[in-house]
């Protein structure tokens, strides 16, 4: 999604969360105004632009649009649209930083096949973004609890059956990992 991604993503999210909505031909925003998350954007947008965004989502296969006998339209998200929303929801995934570190390391170990190379690269990029440090090629570590966050990523990129997570009380390279994590993430662990 390259065009106006922010609005198209919000619109798609509203459609996925809302399930099925009806857009009246007379008042095009009727079924959508209940969604506060896009109300402000809708006020700023022109009907033509709104139609363009809906058409874009339809062409990408994210929604189905059906005209009703009264002239209104029923808009329904597709499974592909729901998967797309899940991927964009990944932007909201963050690892919470507790007040005090418990001195345990969380290891994420994976062996993702080459047939899933794009998913592997996207998964790795997100691990880096979340502050995990590469310990070995397919072993990444983080000092804070991140089991759920990593599980969400693995599921979203459809690599969950290739990903394992461990909590270690002691790692021989713990001192190195602590220094690296503190340096890269600007967080003091002690």
Report the structural category: alpha+beta
Distance between the termini: 42 Å
How much helical structure, as a percent, in the residues? Answer: 40-55%
Percentage of β-strand residues: 15-25%
Q: Major β-sheet, in short?
A: 4 strands, antiparallel
What is the secondary structure topology, with strand pairs?
Blueprint (H helix, E strand, L loop, with lengths): L4 H14 L1 E4 L12 H9 L2 H13 L3 E5 L5 E5 L1 H11 L15 E6 L6 H13 L3 E4 L2 E4 L4 H10 L6 E6 L5 H12 L5
Antiparallel strand pairs: 1-3, 2-3, 4-6, 4-7, 5-6
Helix pairs in contact: 1-3, 1-4
What can you see in these coordinates?
The chain has 190 residues and is of the alpha+beta class. The protein folds into two domains: 5-90, Winged helix-like DNA-binding domain superfamily/Winged helix DNA-binding domain (Arc Repressor Mutant, subunit A, Orthogonal Bundle); 93-185, Alpha-Beta Plaits (2-Layer Sandwich). It has seven helices and seven strands; from the N terminus they run H-E-H-H-E-E-H-E-H-E-E-H-E-H. The strands form two sheets. The chain has a four-stranded antiparallel beta sheet with strand order 5-6-4-7, sandwiched between helices. Strand 2 (63-67) and strand 3 form a beta hairpin. Helix 1 crosses helix 3 and helix 1 crosses helix 4 (79-89). The chain starts with a helix and ends in a 5-residue tail after the last helix.
């Amino acid at each position: 999604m390259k065009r106006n991604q922010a609005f198209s993503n919000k619109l798609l999210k509203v459609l996925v969360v809302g399930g099925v909505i009806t857009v009246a031909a007379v008042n095009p925003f009727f079924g959508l105004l209940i969604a506060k998350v896009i109300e402000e954007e809708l006020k700023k947008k022109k009907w033509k632009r709104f139609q363009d965004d809906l058409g874009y989502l339809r062409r990408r296969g994210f929604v189905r649009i059906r005209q009703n006998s009264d002239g209104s339209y029923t808009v329904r998200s597709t499974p592909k649209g729901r998967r797309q929303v899940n991927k964009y929801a990944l932007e909201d995934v963050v690892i919470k930083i507790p007040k005090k570190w418990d001195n345990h390391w969380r290891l994420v170990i994976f062996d993702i096949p080459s047939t899933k190379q794009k998913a592997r690269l996207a998964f790795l990029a997100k691990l880096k973004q979340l502050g995990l440090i590469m310990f070995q090629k397919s072993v990444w570590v983080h000092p804070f609890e991140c089991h759920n966050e990593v599980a969400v990523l693995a599921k979203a990129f459809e690599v969950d059956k290739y990903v394992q997570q461990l909590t270690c009380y002691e790692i021989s390279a713990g001192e190195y990992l602590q220094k690296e994590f503190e340096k890269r993430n600007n967080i003091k662990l002690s």
